[in-house]
Every structure is written in C-alpha cells, then in structure tokens.
Amino acid sequence: MIFAIIIGMSLATMIPRVIPAFIVDRLQFRGWVNKWLNAIPFAALGALIFPGILNVKADQPLVGLTGGAIAIVLAYLGLNIILVVVGAILTVFLFSI
Angle 61-76/31-54 helices, nearest 10 degrees? Predict the structure, then answer.
C-alpha cells in the first residue's frame, strides 16, 4: 500500500513537469512570445531575491540595497558569479559593522 502511494505521488509530480517539455519543443511561437518566455527566469529570480535584499537588516533596508547595487555593478562588469556574491556579502558585512 505504501509503495503504491509513493509511485502515485511520484507520477503526480512527474507528469506536470515532463509533459510540457515534450509539448513546448514541438510548438513554434512568435518572436515576441519567445522573448517573453526567455524573460521569465530572470523575473522569477528577481522576485525571489529582492525581498531578501530588503530584509537583510529589517531596520536598515539601505544596507541590503547597497549590497544588491554592488552585485549588479560587479555582474555588469562581467565578473565570475562567485566574485559577485562575495562582493555583495562583503559590502553588506562592512555596512553592518
């Protein structure tokens, strides 16, 4: 019984993830739809990161915003993602002292 529940739950989570992968590859979208779909991961990432930036120090949101701005500048300069993250962390640390 438990095994059947595990198989059923795995199918319930797998099917909605696998089916779109097969369907989307066969569809041809217009150019503006492709541009919009390509922007979704960046928008989702921004939506996940921005509240965290504001809550680094709840009483001082400028600290998190400064760290985020430094991360944007470092990423724009083309630095490795590790250096971008370390730069943002160091900025927040130095402003928090």
Answer: 140
Structure tokens belonging to residue 48 = 């996940």
SS3 31: helix
pTM over 0.85: no
Tokens of 92: 């927040």
Distance between CA atoms of residues 42 and 48, nearest Å: 10
| Average of per-residue pLDDT across 53-63 | 89
CA–CA gap between residue 21 and residue 5 (Å, rounded): 25
Mean pLDDT of 72-97: 94
How many Å apart are CA 41 and CA 28, to the nearest integer?
Answer: 20
Cβ count within 10 A of residue 52: 10
